[in-house]
Amino acid sequence: MHLGQGYRKVDGMLPITPDELKICPAFRGLSDPDFKQLVVCMSRRYLAHAGMVLFENEVDSDAAYVIQSGILVAEMPVEGGVAVEMAKMGPGAVVGELCLIRGGPRSLRVKAISEAYLIRIDREKFVDLRRAKNSAAYTVIRNICLTMCDRLRKSNEFIERELRHETPMAADFTSTSEESLAERARTYLSKLFGRGS
Amino acid sequence: MDANRLRFVDALEEFTDRELELLASVMHVRQYVGGEHVFRKGDRASACYIVLAGSIEVVVPGATQEGNTVATLTAGRMFGEIALVDGGLRSANCRAAADGAELCLLGRNEFDQIFNGTNDFAFKLLDLIGDRVVENVRRAAGELLSVVLKERNQGL
After folding, report:
1. pLDDT averaged over consecutive 10-residue blocks of chain B (156 residues)?
2. Angstrom distance (rounded) from CA B143 to CA B150
3. Domain A7-144, what architecture?
4. Which one of B19, B148, B154 would you mutate to disrupt binding with A, by most A Cβ within 10 Å of its Cβ?
5. Complex ipTM value
6. Structural domains of chain B, with CATH
């Protein structure tokens, strides 16, 4: 079981409303009736304190998460119980949304570095909607594709510039020249995974 | 184009005969000679492609005059859809590796109509595009992760 003590499903609280999700690009263009169809896939989650693991790497993806508050980090466990931080994600970011398109093992462990409130989107229920050719589910898929293509383009530009050409850092107004290549790669990983607002 | 030519394309195996006919009716076939460019980096995207025969080299222009060949796409592979989805410019050169390369093209207008559609056919294409996007994102993430891990290992 990868969920640590204190990870709680928060049922019996306020229902999830469209306004809570409209900040996310993945839910752009959805009407209130569309949200009603999607909300069957959603539930609230709460990470009570820093260090709580949302999911481990290499486990099958079973959900995406919208961060409502708090900060999460994605990290790669290495030998000796150590982990290397790869990306940070904050409010508005969607964690693991690729699994709504295609399943597969998680590539990184994600944990909280502060108390965090999340909305969980169940992959299996979402896939059921897709199988039923639900247009709201496909609007979400379309939005994820649009967002990911934009992030992918920026990440690929970084990879080409920094890794294949091995040229010095070109003008990048989001980074400082003192940052190492790995630090800049982390910045792009955070962008790729959705840093949030 | 003849829909039978799309039947061997693995990515389209979920499409029914009727859907393949529909797709074929809006696609065009074009042959390329060796070295001929399908598109160049910086071009505005006008189509996406499926390789029917031969192979296509993906080349990133850069340090050398020949550029850096980062992938070779063979029959059945789809490419060029990312720039159609996000409306951006081409990020690499694509050229025929040798004479006899044959591609089928889906133009921007037709792609947009299907991508924004709300019928089963549109959803299947969206599934296909989604799979390609996920594949590309996971590859890019893998490369970025390896950079961080490499620097961390060198620092030990």
Report:
1. 88 90 93 96 93 93 73 92 87 93 94 88 90 89 86 75
2. 11
3. Sandwich (2.60)
4. B148
5. 0.84
6. 3-154 (2.60.120.10)
